[in-house]
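Example 407, ligand pyridoxal-5'-phosphate.
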Amino acid sequence: MLHIGGAFVTTLEAIAIDDHCVAHNYAPLPVVAASAEGAWITDVAGRRYLDCLAAYSAVNFGHRNPEITATAHAQLDTVTLVSRAFHSDRLAPFCATLANLCGKDMVLPMNSGAEAVESGIKVARKWGTDVKGVSAGAANIVVAHNNFHGRTTTIISFSDDETARRGFGPYTPGFRAAPFGDADAFAEAIDENTVAVLIEPIQGEAGIIVPPDDFLPRLRSLCTQRNVLLIADEIQSGLARTGKTFACEHWGVVPDVYLLGKALGGGVMPVSAVVADADVLGVLHPGEHGSTFGGNPLAAAIGSTVVEILRRGEFQRRSAELGAHLHRRLDGLIGRGVVAVRGKGLWAGVDIDSRLGTAKQVSLRLAQRGVLVKDTHGSTLRFAPPLVITADEIDWAIDQFAAVLAP
Ligand SMILES: *Cc1c(COP(=O)(O)O)cnc(C)c1O
């Protein structure tokens, strides 16, 4: 951002970036990244910003994490893509190490998060037909209200977000929704044709909504009793973001299926996966599902390094400890422009007093002070910095936030 003649001028205008050829499906903050390292992004004018979004958790281990970029560089010089028509020496070790991290038997490698969700839905329906004995085409999946699972035609079919849905019909049938946090309503929604319950353990896009403590344990026993797969979409909540490898661990719950993405690609490329035991993922046979890029050698090499990093537990610890610090500082702003703070680890949803403007307006003011956050809905900001952030940097970011909130 530049201040010219006292007026706030965005870098976009100042450097005359012409983005009219970019489809208008996003309304980004006017910050033009030119480089990034660790928790910091530098724009084309040389201004530095503390990244408190981390690409929605895709950059959990920091921008250009040296261990991950070293893996990527080395792999670029060997083999990057063969498709699944042949084996690569990277795929089987990646699937083995990721399955082991999840305590499961098998991994179905995909690319984007939405593809992992789509694949999880297909696996659940196939399991329902082949194993549970639901008649063909009759399967249903119970989801939560205010969910976010991605942007494909099927996924928006069970979204409550009218902006994401309107004009994109006809919609895929076979989904029913219950209020997030209400296990009784989920029990009610399940019938003999239910093949899966699909939930985010903590709802990200909805505003970092943490469920009541009994919710996930009750869903777990419900799914076991009713012979229904519990599918945890840990695409944003998983891989150290909340202070644990998986958010489900906060409640001692092990789902039947993990959906992973975002940070699995180490901030370098899209890498996603469906992870489950053989009695579930084993329902897929050659030709029944696939992806040209899924599990490519470059993705598998990067994913293996990500798992290695997670095995050491350093980032889970950082998120837990620094997250406690972040939440203490944010809680201190309640009544001073902040209405409520939710979340776990280095992941916080912050409701702003609406008299101070919309969350989007507050995020613009924060960007002017060098802190990048993202609004969600009208009045919620999310803080989700790369897990390499330091306590001093958190303090600085919260000081900027407090200054922006001050009347
Ligand atoms: C981001 C996200 C997705 C979709 O991932 P993409 O890589 O954008 O397709 C799905 N589920 C959750 C919980 C997410 O946060």
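Summary: Residues 113-132 form the longest helix (20 residues).
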